[in-house]
Design brief:
mainly beta, six-stranded antiparallel beta barrel, six-stranded antiparallel sheet, 12 strands
Length: 188
């Protein structure tokens, strides 16, 4: 279980396909106490740490993960959001996030409004009844509040990126047409 509050933006150092799995080697600087077998959110997707080396760890994405997430689009050097799993008693600043991706969305539009950016995401129709105005959604593992949903009668929702989120997650790097991982709010 996660909170959707990204702890660090890591970098993909290596990608290898091995026995039907995609192994991602990810470098990090700030995370501490990572252990073998730990669950870690990688762009919102719960993964298991299978190996640890100096300031890098490896996770193995299965075929199911590759089918449901943006992992298949990753390239070496790409920046990804990282969050270690919650421990009992941890503060939940975002919302409860399982790390089970419900689908991918596409960045439909980015509208600059002073220091903030309004982001519009086109999402799969089957998620329509779960994404509501003022509800929560996770985009690349970031807990966000939905401004509006079903914009102009289409499967598009919007949220605001504040300067802190732009600077401390990979959402500050997204462009129109980029794919993102989506997880609907567990309560919805």
């Amino acid at each position: 279980m996660f909170s959707g509050i990204v702890q660090e933006v890591g970098i993909i150092k290596d990608l290898k396909t091995r026995n039907g799995l995609l192994e991602l080697t990810i470098s990090y600087e700030k995370l501490s106490n990572i252990e073998l077998g730990d669950s870690i959110s990688v762009d919102g997707c719960c993964q298991t740490v299978t190996e640890i080396k100096q300031k890098t760890f490896i996770v193995q994405a299965t075929e199911e993960t590759l089918d449901k997430t943006i992992f298949k689009t990753y390239k070496v050097g790409e920046k990804i959001n990282l969050e270690p799993s919650l421990k009992m008693g941890d503060k939940i600043s975002g919302h409860l996030v399982s790390g089970h991706i419900d689908g991918t969305g596409e960045v439909y539009d980015l509208i600059e409004e002073k220091d903030n950016t309004i982001v519009k995401i086109k999402y799969p129709k089957e998620l329509s009844k779960f994404i509501e105005k003022k509800g929560s959604a996770s985009v690349n593992g970031v807990s966000l509040t939905v401004i509006d949903s079903n914009i102009d009668g289409n499967c598009i929702f919007s949220f605001t990126l504040i300067p802190f989120t732009k600077s401390n997650t990979n959402l500050g790097l997204i462009k129109k047409g980029n794919l993102v991982n989506l997880e609907i709010d567990l309560i919805s």
